[in-house]
């Protein structure tokens, strides 16, 4: 029913029945028959058609926008990251953010970023960089490669940090991700973090 919110075709008790689609709209994209109630003031990015147009700009670059409980989620499918915005295009305080953009960057700046980004895939295993990382982390942590996965750990009881062969984190929002790397957690940044914390307590 969220896709139907604000449509003037809704009627009945609590306006939850559609005269054209009595069971709701379940296809991908916005309903082709949706007619916004003129009495409802829309936020800039609340209209399904607007969201769909933005998706056309970024979907080819492995990113998509979804409506989710009154907010917008911009999902970076390549890096497995998500960014939360209000319908006004404001980045929410609890959201992940891109360090490449200004702290106050809004939705359209993120759209521009994903529309123009050039993803260059680098294989840290095939290139031999993982072996170099293993030498650099000797006495600090261990690195193992299992198929398409690179793991960094301290012992069998400690949390294991897992990355793809291209260095992208498999679990970017795990509770054991260091706070210092909250907005920049990947294989290289984590290795550098461990080296800088060599004399401290690791986790």
The succession of helices and strands, N to C, reads: EEHEEEHHEEEH
Shape type: elongated
Helix content: 10-25%
* Helical segment count: 4
**Rg of Cα set:** 22 Å
Please count the beta strands (DSSP E, at least 2 residues each): 8
Percent of residues in β-strands: 15-25%
What is the residue-averaged pLDDT? 87
The stretches of 5 or more residues where confidence is low (pLDDT under 50) are none
> Sheet with the most strands?
3 strands, antiparallel
What is the distance, rounded to the nearest whole angstrom, between the alpha carbons of the first and last residues? Answer: 43 Å
Give me the secondary-structure category.
Answer: alpha+beta
Strand order of the largest sheet: 3-4-5
Key attributes of the depicted protein:
single chain; 203 residues; alpha+beta; three-stranded antiparallel sheet; 8 strands; elongated
Short description:
This protein has 203 residues and is of the alpha+beta class.
Structural write-up:
This protein has 203 residues and is of the alpha+beta class. The protein is 19% helix and 17% strand. The chain is built from four helices and eight strands; from the N terminus they run E-E-H-E-E-E-H-H-E-E-E-H. The chain has helices at residues 48-58, 107-116, 129-136, 187-196, and strands at 10-11, 17-18, 63-68, 71-76, 81-85, 142-146, 149-153, 161-164. A three-stranded antiparallel sheet has the order 3-4-5. A three-stranded antiparallel sheet has the order 6-7-8, with helices on one face. It has a two-stranded antiparallel sheet with strand order 1-2. A hairpin with a 2-residue loop joins strand 3 and strand 4. The two termini are 43 Å apart. The model has no long low-confidence stretch (mean pLDDT 87).
